[in-house]
Amino acid sequence: MRVCLIASNRYPIREPFAGGLESMTHTMARGLAERGHEVTLFAGEGSQVPDGVRLLPLARVEVSDAAMADRWAPGLEWLVDHHAYLGLMLSLARTGADDYDVVHNNSLHHLPVAMSSALDVPVLTTLHTPPLPMLESALALSPRPPRFVAVSDWTAAAWRHVVDSDVVLNGLDLRDWPVGDGGGPAVWSGRLVREKAPHLAIDACRAAGVPLVLAGPAAQDPTYFAEQVAPRLGDGVHYAGHLTAAQLSEVVRTASVAVVTPMWDEPYGLVAAEALASGTPVAAFARGGLPQVLSPESGVLAAPGDVEALAGAVLAARDLDRGAVRAHAEATCSADAMVEGYLRQYAALAGEAAAA
């Protein structure tokens, strides 16, 4: 099939990934290309695409000082986003069916949804977040809504008041996440931002007497990092920085337990899946999609925000069998399962388009 994957125009698809959306899109692009499909990717400047994947250029805009002097002018970042997606969707409206069999939208921008009915090629949108106002607005005005897939049952339920969606769980290329022996410090990975609350992981591990390694980008919320994370470092807590997938895999597979501390409803929880693939059991707050990602054999859940309960979960999870943890990952969150799930969605959409 000929597939156009739409990601964020702000963040490149390259390591170290900005977040789970970028990692998932890379996994999809590589998996599709390895299966012989023709893949084109729309993503941020500087993306390093897998072999066999074509990268679309971003539409750029230079707005005059006179226009930006308007008191109601939006911010430049908003304009850059708007222009990039508008350029993409207008291009797809002109040549879509000539170039593609399906468009798969992984972005959080409203224009791919709002303009989907203008395309003569079917559009599939993956819901990576809880409901967003701009996407709800786009759907309210869409005469022919695109098909949706959610990354977990929780995410599908969260969007059900607006749109129905099938569920395809996110997946990892298990070749990139080999099993380790564990036995090392606990690990927390992800964006070091307030809603992911790594400071609570520090507090819980310190209460449990378990050393902790933090890994991930801190630049997205430097104030939070400076106020809540940096003062807690030391005394068994180490910040390893923003790591590549290979570097992170080494840290995760040698860890005794992975700690996941969302203070928002994680739609899926890719960092938990990365730990499971590494054979590393998970201690996590029970929010969003995490209860679906974990099983009693692979992780221990704690009440959201309860640091004392999370400390107990850290100690309990360390005793889980690492072979059973990896087996759960192989059964539920492999890249193969994800890619095949989306290929079934693509085939259904292409069949409906051909019959129309």
Automatic annotation (TrEMBL):
Domain Glycosyltransferase subfamily 4-like N-terminal intervals: 19-174
Residue ranges of every copy of the Glycosyl transferase family domain listed in the record: 189-315
GO molecular function: glycosyltransferase activity
Keyword Glycosyltransferase on entry: yes
Alphabetized UniProt keyword annotations: Glycosyltransferase, Transferase
InterPro entries per UniProt: Glyco_trans_1, Glyco_trans_4-like_N, Glycosyltransferase_grp1
Entry annotated with the keyword Electron transport: no
One Pfam match: Glyco_transf_4
EC number from the UniProt entry: 2.4.-.-
Protein name, as recorded: Glycosyltransferase
